Amino acid sequence: MAKIPTRQPISGIRTRITLSLLTAATTLAVTACGGFAAHPVIKKSRCGTSSTSDRGPATLAGTTELKASGPITQPTKAGTTTQTSGFGPRWGTEHKGVDFAGPVGTPIYAALDGIAVKAGPSGEGPGVGFENWIVIDSLVDDKPVSTVYGHMFTDGVLITPGQQVKPGDHIANIGNAGGSTGPHLHFEYWEGGRLQGGFAIDPMTKLGGASSPAGEDGAGSPNIALAAASSSIDCAGFGVAGGGDLKPGSVPAEFEPWFRKAGSLCPQISSALLAADTKAESGFHAVTSPKGAKGYTQFMDPTWAAYGKDDDGNGTISQGDVGDAVMAQGRYFCEIARQVDGWIADGSVTGDARSLYIAGYNAGEYAIKNAGGMPSGGDYTSETQPYVQKVLSFIPEFEQPGGRGELVVSPSSASGTQVIEAARQYLGTPYVWGGGGIGGPTGGGFDCSGLTTYATYTGSGNTVTLPRTSEQQWTVGVEIPINQAQPGDLVFGSWSASGPGHVGIAIGNGQMIHAPTTGDVVKQAPLQNDMKARRVI
Amino acid sequence: MSNTRTFVLLVVAAAIIAGLVFLFSDFGGKHTGTAAPSHTSATLSTVTTTTVTSPAVVDVPSNPATDAAEDTVRQALSVAFTWYPATDRSPTDAYARARKWFTEPLAALLLVDVDTGRGPGTQWSQWASDNAKIVADVNVGCSGCPPDTDILIHRVASIHQTAIADDETTTVTPDTTVWITLTKHGGEWLIDNIRY
Fold this sequence. Notes:
The structure holds 2 protein chains of 2 kinds.
Chain A: H1 8-33, E1 63-67, E2 82-85, E3 88-90, E4 93-95, E5 98-101, E6 107-109, E7 114-121, E8 132-140, E9 143-150, E10 164-165, E11 170-173, E12 184-191, E13 199-201, H2 204-207, E14 230-234, H3 256-262, H4 271-282, E15 287-288, E16 294-295, H5 301-307, H6 322-345, H7 353-363, H8 365-371, H9 379-398, H10 416-424, H11 448-459, E17 464-465, H12 470-473, E18 478-480, E19 490-496, E20 499-508, E21 511-514, E22 523-526, E23 532-535
Antiparallel strand pairs in A: 1-14, 2-5, 3-4, 5-12, 6-11, 7-8, 7-10, 8-9, 9-12, 12-13, 15-16, 18-23, 19-20, 19-23, 20-21, 21-22
Helix pairs in contact in A: 3-4, 3-6, 4-9, 6-7, 7-8, 7-9, 10-11
Chain B: H1 3-28, E1 43-44, H2 64-80, H3 91-97, H4 104-110, H5 122-130, E2 133-141, E3 152-165, E4 168-171, E5 176-185, E6 188-195
Antiparallel strand pairs in B: 2-3, 3-4, 3-5, 5-6
């Protein structure tokens, strides 16, 4: 039985070395396996991922059969919408798509053949970003392409993750959700995959001259005559619902395909959450706790009897098999999510749903039900609540940047402007003391340092993680004279003997974006008189 | 020696020491998992930029009431997050040792005999078999906390833990952050709520 490493730095080094070896080995394996594939394998470079974007057994969840798409069609019928905003710079940032304005309820059609890998909430929260989105992964000229459809209302999303679509399928209706300034479809075209680190190109370079959806002129034209060939693609979860949420190479190679697959079981439970939970449970080692929790995902025997299956097909059902353990973890988490969502819906439970799912995995789902939310008291306070905080803190380590609908910033374009843009997404979000972190709002909002933590992390292309409190953030970076503060610098005020009790983000012209105080919301405001500035990027 | 020269020498000495500390933390590699001191730089996953400048001192008079409340937080959480896994059943035992800093309602809540049925986890078990002691360093701040009143103070605490076994120290990751509410009882500040 493997031992849990307690010397974190040493184990960390060991893990890195192991990962490097696994990466090298997997790279060789993937290269070698290319010859065994029955179908063409898309080279990883076409995914736009780094050389570490390797995965485990190429025959599992990372490999998905996708039919080559036929010609692209327009996402709305001719005459039903007007193009109002093009691709490119807009309002100091980059508009990654094209806007088609039309009345709420105007049909939206799939532009390409493919698989819906996202269909529903974008994870940004009400009134933020797309709020709801659809991402369809497709093969175009043997290359991975994603098309993105945003701003629908919840009831305007007509398909589900994992569903196959073809051009002209009625997949959604135009809405005005999220950060939308009027009813419209926001449409994006990503070469290399939206969730795989690809890049957005001007959709009009593809849509120019394309036919209208079925029923309009052009129906029955080449888009009906789809290319019959199917193609395998080994591209970091491309074409797998939920599979693209996992950052390539972030987990031991033997786990990666299973996390992608288990992260596809239900929309509430992502691959990154499962990986973070496994890290907290076992550090990716098959161990048995003194209380009898077993394997990589630490199942007690009675729970294992309900959720364990021979997912890897090796003839045994074992907590010590990576595939069996991770898939059981996914099934159990999805069942917890289903129950918790029901309790939240009927009002018997309140709280942040994802935190409650994690607490349920630790304490059992009925501890959530009995407490009416996050359980507390005894070991629920001393074990379960810190467990939730730990798992949540691990998620970004495994999360593919942009796996939600949020702002995507590459490290090479990290800047103060991007920090501000990240913060602007959440203007109007409630102030919640203790709320927020690198993943966005928690507990329904942000406090001052929670907002700066999120904005700096996102605006830096996920490279800069600030400590959590304003006092600690004052110890980061270098001080800048306040009159020389540039957009994106942090500004600190409300001084006490222990340091600054408040922090915001300078946006220039004596203004900042900040989460002010209880009862207020994230907003733009003048700098406080006592403020000092620091540059952290 | 003039004051100016003394100041210059102190600055140079501080810079050298800071540089050595940085180098040691980067390459000595035994007690931290990152290249950057945890309290003086951001955690960078791909780029490491570290400042060796000291935080600027802002001259703000201390408030005795605030100081007392923050002392309570520091003392209580230092005890509550210092663990002896070889003899403690779970972290709840450490909360029991910190009971004198808790209000009665909080003590009643924290020290109730409920458990998850799964135990405190595999890392705890390993610490127990290593006979490790887990010590806590507590940093107290406000970070946007509601205004203090005469009877109610809110603070946030970051707890940095180190596992000590034999002659080896290991940083426990991640740091824990808790949001604390204190109330005044008979002239004494006590912790009334702890939220993760």
